[in-house]
Design brief:
about 35% helix, 20 helices, 4-stranded antiparallel β-sheet
Length: about 600
Amino acid sequence: MNAEQQPLKITETALRDAHQSLLATRMRTEDMLPIASKIDQVGYYSSEMWGGATFDSCLRFLNENPWDRVRKLRNKMPNTKFQMLLRGQNCVGYRHYADDIVERFVKHSVDVGIDIFRIFDALNDFRNIEVAMKTAQKYGGIVEGTISYTVSPVHNVELYIAMAKRLEEMGSDILCIKDMAGLLTPSVTRTLISEIKKTVKIPIHLHTHATTGLVGMNLQCAIDAGVDIIDTAISSLAMGTSQFATECVVASLKGQPRDTGLDMSLLAEIAEYFAEVREHYSEFESDFKGVDVKILDSQIPGGMISNMENQLREQNALDKLDEVLKEVPRVRKDMGLPPLVTPTSQIVGSQATLNVLTGERYKIITKETRECVLGKYGKLPAPIDPDLLLKVSDGEEIIECRPADLLEPEWEKVVEECGSSITSDDDRLSYALFPKVAMSYFAQRDSGAAMPVAARPAEVKKAAPAAPAPVASSPARGGNYTVTVNGKPYSVEVVPAGSVAVQSSAPAPVAAPAPAAAPAAPAPGGSAKATLTAPLPGSIFSIKCSVGDVVNEGDALIIMEAMKMETEVTAHVGGTVGALLVKEGDKVQTGDELVTIN
């Protein structure tokens, strides 16, 4: 039977990409469990319920062990294949990890219950997905090799056909076309699916978003062209920056050769449940709820828009959103036309935001922008702007090898740093990927600061999702703590678990840098002081100097984290470090004093 006559398979995204796109990835496991058994009964091909930003968000915002989410849902959903989004050599983080970390992460994911690994590289540099693919295959996972779809002068159907063939040769069980920003058009969709079907024998899975309003037409063209599997989201978590509604596809194919066979009455129950859940996360809802064909130019993926809006809103700079959206394609072109998907979407988006809010292009360049340009994320599709390359390279050459080949094994160091107090594979792997975020989560978890989730009635239809608890004005168990692990101190902030409902959607927003304070009048003893101030809001990731150090103008003294990116704060004058006014983990705003230099 040809694919055009076979039932269409559906992957439901409600438990991952749908709420990542619409609600800044804030949905808690406790709001998934009451409906999980109903989802399990529908007959989906798979449930995409993990990976992407969910791992980071569990630790950073929700006070949850992300590994336990898989275990708890598996207990409720024994019949449905679990699917995750894996960023190749980045796992679920924002940098390349050594091969030993990738191997352990993938193996442990299989152990806790992941069946299908959708593995992609943001640059379509397939050297960066080989280790993850081979590990998933070794331990029995289903490998979905992925093309990150984008539109540019160097990307075309012929290139994507060649990529599809390469992924099949690498051992992919399924081929995924990942249209993360909703850039496909009907004619391109029909051509792309038809031509790839002629080239590869493995099933084709289409992932796309509704952002530009073309999604319904695109999916119909894909179905007509014989696509095997598509991603959809239950209607109450669909459309906007999410996926097309599951029920619409099921209804449209009813009685047709490609009838999905999914139970519409069950889908109605699930939609009703998530409609109520969504109300409790309105704090994180994007203002974007309709159609925006301008995304065809900016190419910002669905999961990033709500985060970017929150970052700008918190700095009273939401009026700059249109400028940022216009700057994104300019930065992307300067950086060699990378597809915009995590982490490149964050890298390009953060740099564009900095360019707009500082009023000067590349006045501040993030560490990740620098490393991406220098090839440390992989091979960029097109030439880099010479002026940008000159600014970031400082004489350093672009690397040509697989970036992970330059990394030393990391696991033994992770075990040593975790010491005897952190021994589970769950916690060690969480620490390996997000050291500071994980330490903060461990401290909060171990302090007992978490509030119990209210019990729910067993009857799903009447189960009211738990509203995120309000922030206590004086949390009894909150505060700043220094946690020492194997002799290494970590500064962490502990807050009650309910407080996540009002946190920003990323570690910190970005604002225009304040000018460094002018040198003060000579202090007693004759030495003048200058104060280095924060150029943007964020958190102090690390401190690279000590009191008494002699520093030169331009030396990196502080590393700040903002928008999940790292930015160096450099000395504006030479001298001797007189005082450190912040410590690692501190939250700072633009203009806050960081270091005095005598």
